[in-house]
């Protein structure tokens, strides 16, 4: 849990607010013994994966008309 939160803090400091926010907020849910909290942690990791899929690669050229 501390490792996930640590990665989230580093990600937040790098300027990735949405991704880092999910990583920082998800681990405290594991402290609660509810099944729903574990499902929310899984949803958090799913959102992280989705965010990584939809964001553009830094090396890709910009679309026409943007720069």
Report low-confidence residues grouped into runs of 5 or more: none
- Structural class comes to mainly alpha
Number of helices: 3
Largest sheet: none
Cα distance spanning the termini = 41 Å
Radius of gyration: 15 Å
Helix content: 55-70%
Total number of strands: 0
Integer average pLDDT:
78
Number of domains: 1
Tags for this model:
mainly alpha; 67 residues; elongated
Please give a quick description of this structure:
By secondary structure, the chain is mostly helical. It has one domain (2-54). The protein is 61% helix and 0% strand.
Walk me through the structure.
- This protein has helices spanning 2-13, 17-25, 35-54.
- It has 67 residues and is mainly alpha-helical.
- The protein has one domain (2-54).
- Helix 1 (2-13) packs antiparallel against helix 2.
- The longest helix is centred in the middle third of the chain and has 20 residues, at 35-54.
- The chain is elongated.
- The N and C termini lie far apart (41 Å).
Write the layout of secondary structure elements.
Elements: H1 2-13, H2 17-25, H3 35-54
Helix pairs in contact: 1-2, 2-3
């Amino acid at each position: 849990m501390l490792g996930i939160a640590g990665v989230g803090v580093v990600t937040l400091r790098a300027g990735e607010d949405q991704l880092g926010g999910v990583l920082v907020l998800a681990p405290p849910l594991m402290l609660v013994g509810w099944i729903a909290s574990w499902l929310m942690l899984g949803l958090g990791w799913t959102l992280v994966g989705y965010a990584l899929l939809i964001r553009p690669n830094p090396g890709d050229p910009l679309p026409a008309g943007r720069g």
